[in-house]
Design brief:
Layout (H helix, E strand, L loop, with lengths): L4 H13 L21 H8 L2 H5 L3 H14 L39 H8 L12 H11 L8 H12 L2 H6 L2 H8 L3 E5 L4 E2 L4 E7 L2 E8 H6 L24 E4 L12 E3 L15 E4 L3 E7 H25 L8 H8 L3 E5 L4 E3 L7 E7 L2 E12 L5 E13 L4 E2 L1 H6 L6 E4 L3 E7 H4 L4 H10 L10
Helix pairs in contact: 6-7, 7-9, 11-12
Protein name: Cyclic nucleotide-binding domain-containing protein 1
Amino acid sequence: MPISTVPSAIFSQMIATSNVPPPPLRSIPPLKLSGQINYGQLDTLYHIRSIHHSWSSCTAVSAHNTFIKQYPKIFLHKKTRLPKILKEVPKRKHSGMDGSQYHPDDSHNIAVHVRKAHGGYTLYGQIGSAETFEEFLHILKKLPVNRTTYEHNIVWKMLKTIPDLASRLNNEHLKILSKNMISECWVKGSIVVGNDGLYVILKGLARPYTTSFENLIEENDLSGSLITQISAAYDQGLKTSPTVKNVLPPGDIMLRQWSTFGSLEVTPDPELETQPLSVVAEEDCEILKIPAKDYENLKLEKAKLDDIRKMKLIQKCPYYEEWPTLSIRELTAIVKWKKFPAGHVIVESGDVISFVAFINYGYCKIYRSIIGLVKLPSNKAKRTRKLVYMGKLKEKESFGEISALLKVPFSCTIVAGSDVQMAVIEDKDLFELDEVTQKLMVQTAKPTFGHLTD
């Protein structure tokens, strides 16, 4: 009987594959332990001997009871958490100081009440958070050239919160000076003389320390408060000078954080009679110094910029475009800035104006007083005065020269059309100018809308 081709092919394939090695053995995957079974208790339950080796009825019953008791222990139970019982926290009684430290003079110190009313910090309280204050101290120890813009702003914002600095310096001056301020460290017992600037105590305590002559001490009977005397070496020519003794003022006067001493005025040769208040450190102190020379230089620089601004304004006015620079500088020295709100009547018609004005920004409306006829119901007419709008004065224009110098009544009424800033020269300053400058003003200026007549 012939063999089928299909089984023969399968058979040949089996022979060919008989030499192929078996596949490698694979490990059984590890079983994941259940999180709900206690396998230690399960193993203990499994090895109860009486269940496997004892066949008596008594032991079987005891083994069964043991099994039943141990069986629930193989299951893990989640611990139930009970809700937390909230306890009522008693409210603290307010001391009335809103977190600020009490000072006996607070009730009579207007600076404390003003800052409280404006939502600021009190004079003796902590300014800002502790982290901000420490960052402030760290920045002040750096050289100003090494500080970033962010650090300069932190110093400026902290200085604005010090009441004494805010009252002495405007915001613009304080911002400029803050970029060059540094802090100084003084050990306990050091004497800080405040004759070259304004000092602010940042950390520590200090006590006022003044000097006086020996005869003044005798007159005021302050010999009992004399604490220390500093001997000085004098030249032969100064042997006859009176003895100077250093005394502490009577009373418990203590300078604390944010207190200030010294002066912003430059004193080139400070004398003992006019020496500003100095202090002696009662403990290690960190003190901020604002040099008086820096403040003086700042004021001089501001004055120069202000003079340049005034000079440019006058030069751009039509009547003064061809004036010599020397004459314009004479006017600049006596010019003052003034502001008028919108709607303010600056000059009324018929009045002699008491100043010369140069408009820096804004504009003014010009009205002319005229006599008109008003028709009455009885077919009659009545004369009355009315203000007629004639035009306006714009920026870089001036008025008042003729009226102020020649004492001529002003022919128009000037009303501020918007908020106006003017450079003003008062009549008392005008007449102190030399005659050449006065005549030059009269010759070059013209009456405001003087070509119009009634």
